[in-house]
């Protein structure tokens, strides 16, 4: 096995964008590793449209969007290995991987880009009581069975979780002739886009049960029914409000978790707020030369932002290698704080001497609001202040600051919401 | 075809007895109503190898617990079963409860449990820093251990099969008739004739005993709920931590598993229905409350799954092992609740000794004493793993990312004798789908491998046998046409 300067772990949208961008920024020694037998990651099973409005001003399906970035990688002839699982990343940036053809191989990389994506939260993490029959699946597994394997996960379905993934899954199942009895949502509102509620639920007469959760699953071999109940203000089921749906399938769309097991093994510092690596303005982790982008860094809503993050890490990794892997930071590392109303920011640190022309901050808010202001403070000085008609935890926000705004000393940057 | 021995139940008891009985020249058949070995209590328990201080001195439970514990090390080596002696603490939360520890210590000594002693708080904390602040003292049992209950049961079954024992699944015994000194066991697959019967039917063992026994047995299915923590949090405790026992049992423990997870549980809830393995919200809540009483800072947000099993609790709270006098040739292995898993090697020997003597069986010359489990590449060095993949490329394809289970292991699990034929069968043999994503990523891949290996369509693959298909045909075109 040849040696490579840059190894990218994951050939989904983040890794694909990173690979092309690294190449264009001068890194001609890159190896892209992907565990599945095709590039494209989760996009390959996302048959619905809505991808690429920001990037291409078109509404593409998942595979169509993926194809754009796959083509860039192929056009640049970037070395890649499919069916390859990275089993270890060492603190010295050696990547250990395995596949059937090459066997086990180690690459002592100069730079690594983490683009492993995320996994779905399982039933067990919610302590949903009941039996454990066939027919209780994550939305992603159901999507894969329907779209890639051509089989139905079930015929009579209840879905827990009304974020976009739950809504899209409801529509997919209905289009496939399944009866979707209800989409059940713990919160008093759906986390999904309004247009998805219309296109996925209203259009198919699928009831949305807000402020409800699943309290029981019956059926020893295969699901026979799912019982839901209303919840109180503490999200606890209210006795006496139970509703039992005879069905054969429960699909769960109850959250995504960045997949950082390899990051942990490498010794990368993780943020409890995002479950992803702590990164600076170059999306570089606590290990110099190790970068992170996409869902492994923080769970995204729009693949367009994933591609932008991927490209940023590609450029940053290429520069790192070009600089002889020296940490060329000058100036101090300044924390970026999540202030009032903000749950987290990515990045969460900035090295004042290291900025490109702009600093892009992405963040999520803690609760829904209308007509509040997003503000950024450099120390005590407010350098950004924009009104946002609507903010929601389910919608990642982005603020781009010109480098000129970030000159002058400051000991922290704060992103917060204000009323005026 | 007349069998010499028909064993009802392919759980740990039935398989341990089958294995020991297979040392003799005899036609032995094990039947189970489920689709595979290890589908009842044996797959849903604490996975603890108890030291043996709990059971009443002089009882069969006490005797077989201590013997089984002593035999387990050698058995684990011979049959390639993950097992280690991590030791256990029975903790008490106040000085008033100390007499309870002393009683267990004395009981343990009377039962022949080695190396028992009471430790004071400062010694306990030095060994287990995460024990709760309430704990004042504990009974320490160094010989207690943890084991993989699936592998134990499977290994006993595979070794029994290698030594000639037959297994038939999806075969439920419905009745037993005694005719001319032998038995006809009626099943949903037809009648089976046998010279002798071993009743190892778990939560149903009273039903079969009571066909012949005048002293009736009564089994109460006693449910235990469990939660399992992600391996990523490390081990909050190295030893198994028990509270003082109550009349319902050993109480809710916190323990490492032999695979590196942490297990919390079990509750003890008496039921009527021997199939009621559903967990309940109350059950889970109560086990979490008790577990957090024993161990500080348990990362409950890292729970990856919960499950429940049913103990076969007999009214007399004692193992019922031996021939039923009213029906010579009918042997019980009934009421095997805790410490049944621990006792299994000793139960097997006891039953085999008794049955072989009664039936006049002679020992085989060529008994195969050992069994090699499914090769785990994670146990190899990187160089050894590289060599393995060169030789067998299927080991180079990782299917279950969370537990790093390769296609090579899954193929071995399916292809070996008594091989996996369902997703749960693959799961218990390889740990695929047991990780933090609980099969979200790999289930469809495991299904595809099963379909290919078994030569069936994807829609025929089951979770755990008949009635548990994982997926259905996309026959929308036939059923209702396209919607746009």
Question: Keyphrases for this structure?
Answer:
heterodimer; A: 420 residues; alpha/beta; 29 strands; 33% strand; globular; B: 484 residues; alpha+beta; 8-stranded mixed beta sheet; 5-stranded antiparallel beta sheet; 23 strands; 31% helix
Largest sheet of chain B: 8 strands, mixed
> Beta-strand percentage of chain A?
25-35%
Q: Which chains have the largest interface?
A: A-B, 56 and 61 residues
- Portion in beta strands of chain B: 15-25%
Helix content of chain A: 10-25%
Amino-to-carboxy terminus distance of chain A: 59 Å
Quote the average pLDDT of chain A.
95
Structural class of chain A: alpha/beta
Distance between the termini of chain B: 60 Å
Helix content of chain B: 25-40%
Based on CA atoms alone, the radius of gyration of chain A comes out at: 22 Å
Please give the largest β-sheet of chain A: 5 strands, parallel
- What is the count of helical runs of chain B? 13
Sum up the overall morphology of chain A in one term.
globular
Average residue pLDDT of chain B: 96
Main β-sheet, spatial strand arrangement of chain A: 5-2-1-9-21
Number of helices, where a helix is a run of at least 4 consecutive DSSP H or I residues of chain A: 8
Q: What class, by secondary structure content of chain B?
A: alpha+beta
Architecture overview:
The complex is a heterodimer of chains A (420) and B (484). Chain A has 420 residues and is α/β, with parallel strands linked by helices. Chain A has 8 helices and 29 strands. Chain A has helices at 13-24, 53-56, 62-75, 139-147, 164-175, 194-201, 261-266, 303-322, and strands at 6-9, 30-33, 49-51, 60-61, 80-81, 85-89, 94-99, 103-108, 111-114, 118-120, 136-138, 151-152, 156-160, 179-184, 208-209, 212-218, 225-230, 243-246, 249-252, 256-258, 290-292, 333-338, 342-346, 349-351, 358-365, 369-378, 381-391, 397-402, 413-418. A 5-stranded parallel beta sheet of chain A has the order 5-2-1-9-21, with helices on one face. In chain A, strands 11-19-13-14-15 form a 5-stranded parallel beta sheet. In chain A, helix 1 (13-24) packs parallel to helix 3 (62-75) and helix 1 (13-24) packs parallel to helix 8 (303-322). Helices cover 31% and strands 22% of the residues of chain B. Chain B contains 13 helices and 23 strands. The radius of gyration of chain B is 23 Å and the shape is globular. Classes of the chains: A alpha/beta (420), B alpha+beta (484). Strand 12 (151-152) of chain A pairs antiparallel with strand 23 of chain B.
